[in-house]
Amino acid sequence: MGTPLLVTYRGHRSGDAVRLADLTAVAMPRDAISADWFTHTVLLDPNFDPDGLIVAVDADTDDVLGFVYAVRAGRGIGPDPDGGWITIGCVDPHARRQGIGTELLRRAKSFLAGKGAKWINYAAYPLAYFVPGLDAQAYPEAAALFEKNGFQKLYTAAAMSINLSEYAMPEEVRELRATRVAEGYSFAAAGPDDLPETLSFASQRLAPDWGEAVRDSVLQNGRIDRVIVARHPDGQMVGFATYGAYRGLRERFGPYGVDESCRGTGLGKVLLHDTLTRMRTEGAQSAWFLWTGEESPAGHLYLRSGFHITRRFDVLRADLGH
Fold this sequence. Notes:
- With 322 residues, the chain is an alpha+beta fold.
- The protein has 2 domains: 7-153, Aminopeptidase (3-Layer(aba) Sandwich), CATH 3.40.630.30; 166-284, 3-Layer(aba) Sandwich (Aminopeptidase).
- It has 9 helices and 12 strands.
- An 8-stranded mixed beta sheet has the order 1-2-3-4-5-12-6-11, sandwiched between helices.
- The longest helix has 15 residues, at 100-114.
- The protein is elongated and about 75 Å long.
């Protein structure tokens, strides 16, 4: 090993977006990000604090050696008032095994503890995440680092995809759809007047951040027709699905869900295949998403519908003792 690096640590500065994004292509190639994506997800995060973006640099050359982004959910959707999050971080492969990763984590913990957080998650930050958690298979060194620094696995999220190049709605789903429509259910693309109810339904009945995901998607892309809603015979919304909601990526499926009171009726299956059919008519060659419980009812539905698991992400947590 050569002469140890002289490392300094600082908060965010002008010019970091490009430099940090470039580092991800080297340090975490399976999850490399662009400067625009970094800007949208970190710098425009409503809870962004420049001191929470901790950057390690070579004191002699000012080269970026690593960074970590720590955030406290004070504004926007705060799913837990006790929580803090790390959404992204990495160390240059040529600068590893010199304590930089450990020091970045220590500083992230200190920053969040100082903001009142009692625990810290990697990642699962509802407002703006790059990946749901850590892919330990792709990054075993990072997994060892987190374990060494007191992080334990909370649960595992499964990423899945399906090839749509030869997709056709299964006949059994067509028959199920016809049966439900005959009973008075409807499945249709949303119109402008459906949006307020969709946002409320998504955030209150399914997940706190899903309403914002739909809102942001329509505002940025203007594609109301990519939101598909299912309604009960009495007119109440009982499910929705969308695609292209995150960063405008047409082939990214979701969010998607059905009200708990209607599960087991096949509405979720119909809504899923209706959405895949619409994606295929737009020319999508695949549909993919990052996060579901592999053993959850939704996970089983995806697998039965032709999806396959592409990656697994561990959501990690460490307590911040005060």
